[in-house]
TrEMBL record:
Keywords: Cell membrane, Hydrolase, Membrane, Protease, Serine protease, Signal, Transmembrane, Transmembrane helix. This is Type VII secretion-associated serine protease mycosin. It comes from Amycolatopsis thermalba. Belongs to the peptidase S8 family. Its main location: membrane. The gene is mycP. GO terms for biological process: proteolysis.
């Protein structure tokens, strides 16, 4: 875990007091190890993921109102134009720096992008919006990393997960992945599952080839929905991990999301696929608050659009509309009733038999007619030729044989003959 001096900590605390209940767009003094990422340009076009998942139809049924989604990440810029609405981003908690600091600021835009995919509010001039725009974001700052688990203290990650579960989160998004099965993180996941929280995690971006690699965590833990990434064509990103931790896939290539301070960025990877599934869980929990977390996860998997890629795609592409509208039952499919064999109609049987016999007789008559006609034609030809010749036998006359020649014809010489022959 990164530590800072008492003087810097006091400066940060003072900055927080100046902005009570929230965070400034610029991180507090000393919060970032390097210069924070600058603002980005605003993108006005409608993103492909928003079209593919049909946000407009989804929002006719739910917008995620009343659901708290914890984003355990690099923090969330609470002053972004699409996240600054009152109550949109809670103060949260910073577990990366020493001191009682909020989680509502971001140095690298990673957590801000994740939070915006979940709950960004629509604003004039921007085509982008969150899948659950009325959900509330609980920012839990556990790193200044732009993805992966490198440089993330597993104890800090575990503390962030534990805090999110106890702070009232209905859904936890973990856009982090690594190959270490850490007991602290495993215990924190168990605690969140016991608190009836839907836990969603990215499966990671370290895939090489197509064969399943080692299981990644926290996506590989029981009770966690592991999310892989696909592109516009629905094909898995080559870097998206393959293995038993993949439960479902979501858009993860050239995904548009918010960046710290202002504007938008296009991002790739499973980190930005996971929030589409977390937002879907928020939508379901907003309209079905009675459903336990395990049943919310089952609904997401049962309504996913199947992908032609087998286990690399899990249950398929997340489908928020079906997750909200499909009627699911617990009972197994009912057995199909036996199809009764209809009794044949005697009159129809007789008519079919008559037609079959008539067809057979007609076919035989046609064959005999052809044979008789052929025989008649041959006989007529013989009679005509016999009368013409007086019924006398005719002997074929062979053409006269030509005498054999010892030499080739003169015209066959292509050059003048020898002088003796001239």
């Amino acid at each position: 875990m990164r530590t800072i001096g008492l003087t810097t900590a006091a400066a940060i605390a003072a900055a927080v007091v100046v902005c009570p209940g929230g965070a400034a767009a610029a991180p507090p003094p000393g919060a970032c190890g390097s210069d924070p990422a600058p603002a980005s340009p605003v993108v006005t076009e409608l993103p492909w993921a928003q079209k593919t998942l049909d946000f407009r139809a989804v929002h006719e049924h739910a917008t995620g109102a009343g659901v708290v989604v914890a984003v355990v990440d690099s923090g969330v810029d609470a002053d972004h134009p699409q996240l600054r609405q009152p109550g949109k981003v809670l103060p949260g908690q910073d577990f990366f720096l020493v001191g009682d600091l909020p989680g509502g600021f971001d140095c690298v835009s990673h957590g801000t992008g994740v939070a915006s995919i979940i709950a960004a509010a629509p604003v004039a001039g921007a085509g982008f919006t969150g899948l659950a725009p009325d959900a509330v974001i609980l920012p839990v700052r556990i790193s200044e990393s732009d993805g992966g688990t490198e440089g993330i203290d597993p104890e800090v990650l575990a503390r962030g997960i534990w805090y999110a579960a106890d702070a009232g989160a209905d859904v936890i998004n973990l856009s982090v992945a690594g190959g270490v099965d850490d007991p602290f993180v495993r215990d924190a996941i168990r605690h969140a599952v016991e608190r009836d929280v839907v836990v969603v995690a990215a499966v990671g971006n370290g895939q090489e080839g197509t064969a399943p690699g080692p299981v990644t965590y926290p996506a590989g833990y029981d009770g966690v929905l592991g999310v892989g990434a696909v592109d516009m064509a629905g094909v898995r990103l080559a870097s998206s991990q393959v293995g038993p931790q993949v439960d479902v896939v979501a858009p993860g290539a050239s995904v548009l999301c918010a960046a710290r301070v202002d504007g938008h960025q296009y991002r790739d990877g499973t980190s930005f696929a996971a929030p589409f599934v977390a937002a879907t869980a928020a939508l379901v929990r907003s309209v079905r608050p009675d459903l336990p977390a395990a049943e919310v996860a089952e609904r997401i998997l049962a309504t996913a659009t199947p992908s032609p890629g087998g286990g690399a795609y899990g249950a398929g592409m997340v489908n928020p509309y079906r997750a909200l509208t499909d009627v699911l039952v617990d009972a197994p499919p009912a057995a199909l009733p036996a199809v009764p064999r209809p009794e044949p109609d005697p009159a129809q049987v007789r008519l079919s038999a008559w037609w079959a016999g008539s067809t057979s007789d007609a076919r035989m008559f046609a064959v005999l007619t052809v044979v008789v006609a052929g025989v008649g034609a041959v006989v007529a030809l013989v009679l005509v030729r016999g009368r013409r010749t007086g019924w006398r036998a005719r002997r074929a006359e062979l053409p006269p044989a030509e005498p054999a020649r010892d030499e080739l014809p003169e015209e066959m010489f292509l050059v003048p003959p020898p002088p003796a022959d001239r």
